[in-house]
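Progress narrative, Year 2. Work on DNA-binding response regulator from Paenibacillus chitinolyticus advanced from sequence curation to structure prediction during this period.
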Amino acid sequence: MREKNKPIHVFIVDNSSGKNPAIADYLSQSDQFQIAGIETGMKSASFTHLGVLPEPFVVVMLMSDSPHCDILWIKKMKKTYADLRIIVLSEYNYVLFFHTLMEAGVNNILNMDTKPEQVAQVIECTLDGHFFLPYSFYHMLNHISSVFTEVEIQTLELIALDYTNAQMAKELNVTIRTVESRLTKIYDKLEVSSRRGAVKKIMQMK
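Result:
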């Protein structure tokens, strides 16, 4: 159990081009939190210079429109700091990436427009071992499930993670022709003609 009187060290990674700057402002003005660093852009975002991380320590990541890169960064940091607590905020439909984010080591997921005081509460909940999802997650899940089959959703997730057709076939244990057939059906449903168009449209679904 963490000591309640110790300030919570928060490292903010903002890959969102400043979509919710109020979070850093709010936390920096609170005696309860101490900003350990603020980085923008995946290449520069690192706190390894801190050496042994102060406790309690939490990373708050404002995700970009390239979840594949964000997830790779998360995996890299978790490999260095196995007990690292990470909270991500996304303005996009993150249902497709939910399992991947959990497997990467994310502790909580929030909408990008979450109010700063709510983010502060989630930071505390995360340190106390709690997990929850916004109601909107279930709404998005129901929406996607009503449009796509389970295998199409699996395929969409792999598209969003930048898998090639060959990699998808291996991951799903099917032939490349089957993958191509599924992609055609997905494109038809989304009324797009490319992977990039499919990912963009699915991420913007509400």
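The first strand starts at residue 8 and ends at 14. The beta strands are 8-14, 33-40, 57-62, 85-90, 108-111.
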